[in-house]
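input
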Amino acid sequence: MSSGHDSEEPVISPGVRGPVVPERPPLEVRVRSLRPFPHEVAALLYVAAGCLVLELLPVTYPRKALLLASRLPATVIAAAGLVAVAARRAASWWRGRSLAPSRRPPSTVGTDLVVLLRAAATLVPVLSVHFLLKSFIHLINPRTWDAALWTIDQTALFGLSPSVLATELFTNHRFLQFLDLFYSSLYFFLIVLSVPLLLVVPTLPRRMAFLAAYTSMWIAGSIVYLAVPSWGPVFVVSEAFADVLRHMPATVGVQSVLFEELSSLVRNPLAPRVVRFGSVAAFPSLHLAVVTVFAAASRWTSRPWFVGNVVVVLVMLIGSVVTGYHYLVDGWAGILLGLAACSLGRRLFPESAERS
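output
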């Protein structure tokens, strides 16, 4: 019969001096090994297939872009991740400072850093290949589905166009200015802050489930981009958005660059060109897919964070239509893609679905 305080005593094994070091959980052992996870294998296959497609194009592309195309967000995310690891370690030390050394929780800094390294090794090439493939969509698959997507939007709304309806409903110039800032600028900061936090703050199974979901979402989104190319309504019926865009200078600036990138490819596919944003692709909306993954991944980590992310999804859905970047069906497809990717992440790491 064990007493109520037996669990507080260090476990001593015969012939061994001092307490027994607890074994690492199986997932932590796996993370610290060189054995790849399924989403890492999928990423490797995607990068290999993407490079093959790029090599078969009738034009050349800068090979260094395979590593440098995503260098800015990768650098910021890495720096934020290291800060988050340091903060996590400091918080753990503060909580356990009054405990005896034998009772303090073991440091997880090594595992935290390995997770960040695995994320970098997976996401940097995936995002770079995604950027390059998106830049050459018109060469890879010149067919566009804008007319079909416009028709689907109208059919779903009983003959009304969600794009036209949104520009008539949202006319307040202050709200349009807010959407302009939110959609064109804050989205980048959401990524560089949310990704490192979701790779450090939650439990290890949930971190790995998020990484699997985030990786899968970019891969699947890129494949759908190539299968169903579309430019987006603002590039097809730009006159429908003229009134709202007068209040959205940042959006107009980005759209002008995107239009020039796309136009230069259409005018002369074999000519040299400069690409800043990776050209255009409307279906599905990866803006919506990304923030949906953030919302689902933060669900069990922090209720205020989750609620905030849900609000972001709603604002992003409205913004994607009002700015003309996307048809409404693009946004719903992006949300479904994000949810499907999170479901896959939970299946790959079932412990992530357990409440802590």
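quick obs: The chain has one domain: 37-42+53-353.
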